Records
---
Amino acid sequence: MKKVMSLVLSAILATGMLAGCGGGSSDDANASNETNGESAATSDIVVGFSTGAAGTTFRQEGIDDFTAIAEEYKAEGRIKDYKIVNNTTNWDSNEQANIIRDFINDDEINCIVVNPNSPTDLNGVLAEAVAAGKTVVAADCEVDVEGVYCVSIDHYEWGKRVAEYICEALDGKGNVIQVYGGEGHPANNERLRATEDVLANYPDINLVASTSGGWDNQVAKQVTSQILGGGTQIDGVITQDSMGYGCLTAFTDLGLCPKAAFIECGTANLKEYDKLKEEGKEIKVCSQPNPPSIVASGLRIAVNLAEGKELDEAKLGGLYGRACIYDVKNWYTDENIDELRPLLEGKGDDYLLTEYWSEDEAQAFFK
C-alpha cells in the first residue's frame, strides 16, 4: 500500500513540475510575440488597400512591396490581416469610390490605404471613411480631406526637375513633346503644372504635342509614334516613369533619336540608351525614380497611426500641410548614369528602380 501511495505522490509531483514548466514557456512566448506593446493575438488592425489601377510594372512592384510589409507586420503581430483590391478599370474614380465604400462597410477593416485616382472626386467617400472611424492614408499623391494624411513625393518638383533639364539640354530652343500619365490623377496634375511653369521661362521651346501615355510604355510608344508620323522634327521628350522606354523606342524604330529625353530608372531603358550611345548618337538624358513602392511607405505610416501614434505636425508638408513627403534619393544624367548600373544588375528588363522607408524612417515622422 505504501508503495502504491508513493507512486501516486511521485506522479502528482511530476505533473506539477511539468505544469510549471509549461506556464513558463507560455509566458515567454507571449513576451516574444509582443511588438510595440501589442501581442499578435490581440491586434485588431485590418488594412484595406485600394490600388486605383493595376496591370503595369509600376503598380505591380508597389503591390508586391506593400504585400511584403503587410506580411512583415502580420508576423510581428502589428496587424491582424489586410485586403488588396484593384480597379477593374484603371484610373476610374467612381469605381474606386465604390471600393472604398466597401471598406467602410466592412466591420473588420479599420485602416484604409488608397492611391487616389483624383484630387477631388474621392473627397466625399474619404470623408465618410474618416467619419466612420477608419484610419485613412492617401499614398503616392495628396488629397485635401480633413483627417486624411498623405504620403507622397513632391510631384511638382519631380516634374519641374525633368522639364528644366530637357530645356537646358536643348540650350533653350527646339521642339518638344510631353507624354504624361493618368488623366486627372493628382500626381499627374502636379507634373503638368510644373511643365507649364517651366516652359513659360523658355519662349524658344515649342511644345508640339502634349498627350497621355497612361503610365504605360506600350501606350506611350503608340502616341509618340503618331506624333512622329506627322513629320515634325522632335528634339526633346518630357515624360514620366513607366513611359520613357516606350517614347524612346518610338524614335529608334523609325531610325530617329531625340537630342534630350527623360528615361526611367529601369533596365530596358538603360539598355536602349547604351545602344544609342554605342551607335554614336548624340542624346542627353535625365532619370529619376518615382518609387512604385511609395504605397509601402504609406502602409508604414497608416499602421503606426492605427496603433495610436501621433504625427509630428512640424514634420508634415505638401500642398495641404498633411503630407509625409518622401525625398527621392536618386537623380541621374549622362554625368553619373554609371551609378545606376549596379542598382539594376541582375534585374529583368521590366524592372523599375524603387525605394521605400524603413520602419525607423517612417517612425521619424511621429512624436
---
Amino acid sequence: MKTWENNVRKVVPYTPGEQPDDKYMIKLNTNENPYPPAPGVERVLRGMDTDALRLYPDPSAGELVRAIADFYRLDEDQVFVGIGSDDVLAMSFLTFFNSGKPVLFPDITYSFYDVWADLFRIPYKRPALDENFHIKKEDYFQENGGIIFPNPNAPTGVEMPLSEIEEIVRENQDVIVMIDEAYVDFGAQSALPLIEKYDNLLVIQTFSKSRSMAGMRIGFACGDPKLIKYLNDVKYSFNSYTMDRTALAAGVEAVRDKEYFQETCRRIIETREWAKKELKALGFCFEDSKANFIFATHKTCPAEKLFQALREKHIYVRYFRKERIDNYLRITIGTKDEMEQLIEFLKSFI
C-alpha cells in the first residue's frame, strides 16, 4: 500500500438498486412511482428560459421552501430542502450526530445509514427488529447519540404507530431523533404534527416516491427552526447552490397539484391491497405494508430462485443477500397491468 493511502477516508459504499436498460422490462425493484409527475411539472420544464441556466439558482431555494411550507401548513423557517432525501439525511448525520455516543437504528432498515455513519466516523448500534420485523420501542430508551429510522421501515414496509414514535422522541429529548418518511404518503401516519411539540425531532421526506420525481432529486426536512438553521449552516459550509433551477421549478409545481398527488397515491394503495390478496393466495407471507412495495417470502420457493426466474422474464424486483432477509423479495407496486403480469408469471412458475 502506498503511504498516502493510509490517510484516505475508506468506506464500503451503498449499493443502489439496479437500473436496467431494457425497453420490455417491468421495473419493480427501486420503489419508483409508476405514474408520471404532476402535469404542471411538464409545463414548467417545457416553458423554462434556458438562458437563465447561465445564472446560479437561488441558494435558499425560497420558492420551493414556501411551497412545501404552505402544503404542510408550516413556517418557512421549519423547512430545509436538498438534493433528494439522501442528501438531506447525509447532511443531518453530519450536523447532528457528533456526541461520540452510538447512534441507534434498526438492524434491518435503509442500508445507507451505516454507510453514512462509517463515512463520518459516527459510532452506531443496530437494535434487532422482532420476529415480525417490528421496531421494539424499548430498544431506543438506552443512552445514545441520536436516533434514525424510517417509518414505514424499509425494506419491510412496516409502520410504527405514531404513539410509539412519540414515546421514543419524548424519552430522548437530549439528542436528535430523525424519522425518515420516504414512504409515508402510501397509508402511514406522519410524525410531522409532533415537530410543534418536540424541538429535537426532524422529519425527512422525499419527492422520489409519492411525487414521481426520483429523477429530479428533491428531498426536504421539517423541524424546529433552530434545527433548520443548523442544517443550513452546514449546507452553506459544504455547497451553497445545492438545488438547480430545473429541480426548483419542477418541485414547486409538484407540490402545488394536491389533487394529482392524492389521486396517484390512492391508485398505488389500491393496487397494493389487490396485490397483497393475490400474493397471499399464491403462498407468499409478508407483514402489512404501508409503503409502495411488499416485502414477501414464499412458503416453499426460495427467494433467490424467484428473483432469477423473474429477471429472465424481464421482471425486476429487489433481492437482498443479507442476514435475516435473504429469503425475501421486495416488490415495488407498479401499475395494475404490471402487477397483473407479475401475478400471472408467478402463478405459472410456482
